[in-house]
Amino acid sequence: MIAYDITPLGKPRMTRADKWKQRPEVMRYRMFCDDARLHQIDLPESGAHITFVMPMPQSWSKRKRAEMKGKPHQSKPDCDNMLKALMDALFDDDSSIWDCRITKIWGEKGQIIIGKVS
């Protein structure tokens, strides 16, 4: 299991104008893609278990943070959009990936953890 200290995010809906416009969500996505490439994330073509650890909001109390750590993250962004963002960042053509499992959980800091399905 390998953990990468990158805060995951979902791929935003983009238009042609985003090639020259600098919308904040598109700029965050481009920074995420750059980080993923810099960390040289290795994603196997089958049997990967990708865990997206979403950072808890700073406004949460210590009690709520302790309660939610490791629990399922059941709000946006959707896990399919997060996988799409990761795969688009890593591959020009991601058609070779044919089997993976995705999990979203709450954590103290944002991470992407890649392991093998057992």
Structure overview:
Pfam families: RusA. This is RusA family crossover junction endodeoxyribonuclease. With 118 residues, the chain is an alpha+beta fold. The chain has one domain: 60s Ribosomal Protein L30, Chain: A (2-Layer Sandwich). It is 29% helix and 21% strand. The protein contains three helices and four strands, in the order E-H-E-H-H-E-E. It has helices at 24-38, 62-68, 79-90; strands at residues 2-4, 48-55, 100-107, 111-116. Strands 1-4-2-3 form a four-stranded mixed sheet, covered by helices on one side. Helix 1 crosses helix 3. The longest helix is centred in the first third of the chain and has 15 residues, at 24-38. It is globular, with a radius of gyration of 15 Å. The N and C termini lie close together (12 Å). The mean pLDDT is 92.
Topology:
Layout: E1 2-4, H1 24-38, E2 48-55, H2 62-68, H3 79-90, E3 100-107, E4 111-116
Parallel strand pairs: 2-3
Antiparallel strand pairs: 1-4, 2-4
Helix pairs in contact: 1-3
Alpha plus pi helix count: 3
What's the story with the biggest beta sheet? Answer: 4 strands, mixed
Structural class: alpha+beta
Low-confidence stretches: none
**Strand portion, in percent?**
15-25%
Helicity level: 25-40%
CATH secondary-structure class: Alpha Beta
Widest sheet, order of strands: 1-4-2-3
Radius of gyration: 15 Å
> Mean pLDDT, as a whole number?
92
Number of distinct beta strands: 4
**How many domains?**
1
Order of helices and strands: EHEHHEE
Which second-level CATH architecture applies? 2-Layer Sandwich
Organism: Buttiauxella selenatireducens
Protein name: RusA family crossover junction endodeoxyribonuclease
Pfam families: RusA (PF05866)
InterPro entries: Endonuclease_RusA-like, RusA-like_sf
